[in-house]
Design goal:
This protein is mostly beta strands. It has one helix and nine strands. A hairpin with a 4-residue loop joins strand 2 and strand 3. The longest helix is centred in the first third of the chain and has 12 residues. Bound molecules: zinc ion.
Length: 142
């Protein structure tokens, strides 16, 4: 655990039709956000969510080829291989209010999205290979 301090806040909407994960990564690169937290809401035209199979140690992907509400978008920004890296989980709801969610993957297309990225100051966390999980988790040295 580290102590971080609030930094600058970026608040705005994402372009219609953009890839959600790529748009968030681009904002962080362009704004120089190396550490932070992300929240948002809106709607997507289609979605691709990952579920990490803890036994096989790889992601399975669920594809939703329909419009869905973003009930909650929550995530963080840290560093991976020298670049800002966005990690987001989504809760989505269909036209009957049924919700499901998972790890945001490339291939999720924005219909409209309102996002707040809270930058944090302090030594950035760096992702590196974690033997126990097979995931790129935050290291101790970060
Ligand atoms: Zn995840």
């Amino acid at each position: 655990m580290k102590t971080m301090m609030p930094g600058e806040v970026w608040m705005g909407r994402l372009p219609h039709g953009c890839d959600l994960l790529e748009a968030l990564n681009r904002i962080c690169r362009e704004q120089g956000i190396r550490l932070g937290r992300i929240e948002g809401l809106g709607a997507v035209k289609k979605a691709r969510l990952g579920f990490y199979d803890q036994t096989r140690r790889e992601y399975d992907f669920l594809d939703f080829a329909q419009p869905l509400e973003i009930v909650q978008l929550v995530g963080n920004v840290s560093m991976k291989e020298g670049e800002p890296f966005v990690h987001v989980h989504l809760t989505l709801a269909d036209h009957e209010g049924r919700a499901f969610g998972g790890h945001l993957a490339p291939g999720t297309e924005v219909f409209a999205a309102e996002v707040v990225i809270q930058g944090l100051t302090g030594t950035p966390l760096h992702r590196g290979w974690d033997e126990e999980t097979g995931l790129p988790l935050w290291g101790e040295e970060g």
